[in-house]
Each structure stands twice: as C-alpha cells, then as structure tokens.
Amino acid sequence: MSAGPAGHVTRSFDIPNSETADRTPPRPSRTPLRRFLRTDDGVNIDAVYDPKAVVYNGSGGTGTPSSGHLAVVVAHGFTGDADRPHVRRVAEVLARYGSVVTFSFRGHGRSGGHSTVGDREVLDLAAAVRWARELGHEHVATVGFSMGGSVVLRHAALPDGPDAVVSVSAPARWYYRGTAPMRRVHWLITRPEGRMVGRYGFRTRIHHRDWNPVPLSP
After folding, report:
1. Where do the segments described as Disordered lie (predicted)?
2. CATH code where residue 154 lies
C-alpha cells in the first residue's frame, strides 16, 4: 500500500529487460494503492487501485496493450468484497488492459454502513468511479457481477456515468424468488436470523429496512 499522498503510486520494482531475456517473464510488478472513499451519503468505502500491468517482452520494449488511460472499476456481487479471491483474479486479468479499481460495497468487507442490496450501492460505485478520474484516467469503464451488475446499469444513467458498462448476470427485476438460490438470498435479506448468518458467515451486514421507495428495475 502506498504511503504517499492520495493518487500517488509508489515506485515499481521492474527488472531491466537485459536481466530477464533468458528467463520466464515475471509476473506483473505493480504497487497497489488502498484507501477509504467517502460516498455522497457519508459511508466509508474500502477501495483498492491496481495500476496497469507492465510485462517485459524480451525485445527491448514492454508488452503493454494500447489501452490509453483506461481504468476499469469492478463491482462485486452480494456477499463479495475487494479481498475475495475471485475478485482479485478478475482484477489481475483486467489489469493487463488497464488500471483497475476494486472496492467493497457498503456493509461488505472493511467498508462501513449496511448493505441495501443494490439500492444505495450506486453511491458506492459513483465514489469509486470518481476516484479513478481523480487519479488521472480519461476513460473509465465499469464491470459488475450479479448485484454489482444491477448497480453498474443504474449508475450508467447518472450524469457523471462511465464511458462503457459491462453487466454480468444481473437481475432483470427485483424480488424474484423463482429459484432455490434466490429464495435463500431473500431469506438472508429479510429474516433476522438470515441477516445474522450474513454478518457472521459472509461478512456482510445487511440493512433491516426494506426499500422505500423501490428503485427502478435494472
């Protein structure tokens, strides 16, 4: 984690090309930056910035894709967080093409607040996108999975939305209970004992109040 001011990425430990010509190319050498972001409604959101990967290609240059100043902001699913292994794997792959911002939605991981399961989370994503732009990225794309997929779609309608959006396996409508997994999700959200399982079993603190008003479906 960088000890410098916000937006400053500390030095890299890349090995010169001449020392790696006869070896297996090293893993991307990047120094991540971690900080808490403040949302418009006052919630602290844990976020991680991974600079774009640089891998030496053995031909006198670097094998950096021509992605310009792209940053990708990843929105995880319900009960996920920025430190989950599957989220880190997604970030590692996307870092081949641009810098990556991952974060934990409210009520998840190290972030403050309580999960509203896709409603106020739009403000969390907005804070992460704003941070990416503050770090100097001209183009910002959002990628969301499941609950995060619904959040990126709703966030895209805002005036300061991203330049591109990818939504993976997002719900098309709220309160769907047509499958056993979705019925378990609703039990987790709506029942006191379910919210206790969410807190201690999934590190997810879920708000006890229902939506009022109900947001538009994705």
Report:
1. 1-37
2. 3.40.50.1820
